[in-house]
Design a protein that fits this description.
- The protein has a domain at about 5-70: Helix Hairpins, CATH 1.10.287.
- The chain is mostly helical.
- Helix 2 (about 10-35) runs antiparallel to helix 3 (about 40-60).
- The longest helix is centred in the first third of the chain and has 24 residues, at about 10-35.
- The protein is elongated.
- It has helices spanning about 5, 10-35, 40-60, 80-85, 100-115, 125-135.
């Protein structure tokens, strides 16, 4: 379908078309993995159709191309607006006291060093001694 055909669809029809196309794409990919089909051209067309649908949806969000006049979405219908419940306010959490930097730093430094073991690396002279002793033995 061309973009103009998608622009002539209502919001609900456009969402339905997006779901159908995405499902077709999924099934075609599945068949390709199983080796049942080699529909590369159809795969490309489905991906482009999904991109067109998403473009039209985004245009409507931005108000560039509004939905056709005769087709209203569920949210825009007058009876839906009368029966819709108002949005609930989120409950706010009580504010927590901020810890001072000194106290926070003390906690983190104790937590960092609590379970670690320190590994010391041998010095350069010890490495040379180990190399020279292995050469002498051999």
């Amino acid at each position: 379908m061309e973009a103009e055909k998608y622009r002539n669809l209502g919001d609900d029809e456009l969402a339905l078309e997006a779901r159908k196309t995405a499902e077709q794409l999924f099934r075609l990919r599945f068949q390709m993995k199983l080796g049942q089909t080699e529909g590369v051209k159809k795969l490309r067309e489905l991906r482009r159709d999904i991109a067109r649908i998403k473009t039209v949806e985004r245009e409507r969000e931005l108000g560039l191309h509004p939905a056709p006049a005769g087709r209203l979405s569920d949210a825009e219908k007058p009876e839906a607006a009368a029966t819709a419940k108002p949005a609930r306010k989120k409950a706010t959490k009580p504010a927590r006291k901020k810890a001072t930097k000194k106290a926070a730093g003390a906690r983190t430094s104790r937590a960092r060093g609590a379970g670690r073991r320190t590994v010391t690396k041998p010095s350069a002279s010890k490495k040379k001694a180990a190399r020279s002793s292995s050469v002498k033995k051999g």
